[in-house]
Amino acid sequence: MIRRLAGVLAGAVLALAGCGSDNSGLPRDAHCGHSTNGVLCVVVYTGNSTVRDVIGYYSPATSLRGRTWRLDLLGYDCDPATAACQPAVQYPARARQVPPPVDGHCIAVIYDGGHQRCTNRLAAAYGSHADWAGLPGLPSAALAGHAWLCVAAQLARSDGWHDAFPHSAACYHHA
After folding, report:
1. Potential cystine with 131: which of 10, 22, 66, 125 (Cβ 3.0-4.6 Å)?
2. How many domains does the chain divide into?
3. CA–CA dist 169, 34 (Å, integer)
C-alpha cells in the first residue's frame, strides 16, 4: 500500500487551486509556488517604506507525520532564482513534529489519472505573532530594505535542514 501511494504521488501532478483567490482560503495578494511537495505561499503587508507583517503558508501534498519540519523566512538583496544569490537574513519558525492542522479549504488539487484529491492541511507563520525567530519588530524598515522576502518549507534530516521547494518558489519582490 505504501509503495503504491508513493508511486501515485510521484506520478501525480499538483495544481494550485486558486492560490490567491477566494477558493483557497489565502489572501488575494499571496505569492505562491507549487510542486509535488505541496503549496508554499508568502504574503507581505507593507506601508510607508516598512514591512508591517509577513505571513508564510505551507500546505504539504503528503502527510508530515513522523517528520520534523519548519517554515523559514529569508531576505535576499538579489534574485533568489539565480544560483549565486544567497540569503542576507534568515528567520526560522519553530521546528514542528506534527503535521499542519487541517484547514476547511482545498488549498491545492493533485491530479492523477484524471482523479483529483485536495490537500487541505495548512501551516502558517506570522511576523505579527513573533513566529519568525529573530525578526525585527514590526513595522520594520530594515526588513523592507531587502528586495526579496521568501518563505521556505524545510524538512529536518540527520545532516540539517533541507528545502522542500526551490528558494524562489514563494517570494515577494519589491523595488
Report:
1. 125
2. 1
3. 7
**What's the pLDDT tens digit per position in 137-162?**
999 999 999 999 999 999 999 999 99
How many Cα atoms within 13 Å fall on the side-chain side of residue 1? 0
C-alpha cell at 54: 509577513
Q: CA-to-CA distance for 27 and 127, rounded, in angstroms?
A: 16
3-state secondary structure of 146: coil
First to last CA, the chain: 49
- Report the C-alpha gap between 154 and 65 in whole angstroms: 14
- Cβ(42)–Cβ(150) below 8 Å: yes
Q: Each residue of 44-91: pLDDT tens digit? A: 999 999 999 999 999 888 889 999 999 999 999 999 999 999 999 999
Model-level pTM? 0.82
For cell 509556488, what's the residue? 33
Left (φ > 0), alpha (ψ -120 to 50) or beta: where does 145 sit?
alpha
